[in-house]
Amino acid sequence: MHMGGAHDLGIAIAGSARHFSGGFGVMGLPVQEAEERGFRRRLIKRPVGDYREAAPMLARGSNMYKIIAALFVAAVMAGSASASDKISAPDKIAVMRPVRQFVDSFNSGDLKNACAAQSAIIDEFPPYLWQGATACADWSNDFDAFREKNGIVDPKITLGLGQHVDVMGDRAYVVVLAHLTFKQNGKRVSERDPILTVTLQKIADTWRIAGWAWAKR
């Protein structure tokens, strides 16, 4: 931004001070007017873009944003917990049963029959998405190939205590924290608190996994 206009205006004010040097106030002006002109001159001489006074305010605004974001996340989690609490304990146990069976199958190395006839899977290794009637079997085969290529053995999943369950008719939705451990090239590796999200469908009075996604945190 061009600052010549502010510089010239500052010179003009200084000239006015010399012209009125014999008066009865500062710069020959009444005290109130002199103070007002002095205040304006200080504003004129302050460089445009001087944000020293604004910095604390910006910092406070940034902290306020973080506080608001934290409160929003807490509110969402509280709402999820409230929705989950409305489901009866037997229904929750029935929905979680195939999820726990899925984890047991994973830990034993047999996942090919853990899903419903039509399912979808999202995971962290290529091709990242499996879907259709053979999704579980295809995922299992690709996972075996991925493990062999990367020297991964003995993968184990443990489900966390915190979980969210929604049920609507013959459909259910589960989000649960998990803990994955495995050995890679002889070294123990741990993935703490990844998120396992599962959708289920009730078929002939039995809950079956229709899809699941695994996400690192």
3D structure, described in words:
The structure is a single chain. The protein is α+β, with helices and mostly antiparallel strands and 217 residues long. The protein has two domains: 79 residues, no CATH class; 128 residues, Nuclear Transport Factor 2, Chain: A. The chain is built from five helices and six strands; from the N terminus they run H-H-H-H-E-E-H-E-E-E-E. Strands 2-1-6-5-4-3 form a six-stranded mixed β-sheet. A hairpin with a 6-residue loop joins strand 1 and strand 2. Helix 1 runs antiparallel to helix 2. The longest helix is centred in the N-terminal third of the chain and has 32 residues. It is globular, with a radius of gyration of 34 Å. The two termini are 45 Å apart. 12% of the residues are buried. The N terminus is likely disordered.
Descriptive terms for the model:
217 residues; alpha+beta; Nuclear Transport Factor 2, Chain: A; 2 domains; six-stranded mixed sheet; 5 helices; 6 strands; disordered N terminus
- Stated plainly, the CATH topology of the largest domain is called Nuclear Transport Factor 2, Chain: A
Element pattern in H and E: HHHHEEHEEEE
Task: Calculate Rg over CA atoms.
Answer: 34 Å
Q: Give the end-to-end Cα distance, rounded to a whole number of Å.
A: 45 Å
The oligomerization state is single chain
Provide the spatial order of strands within the biggest beta sheet: 2-1-6-5-4-3
Q: What is the CATH C level class of the largest domain, in words?
A: Alpha Beta
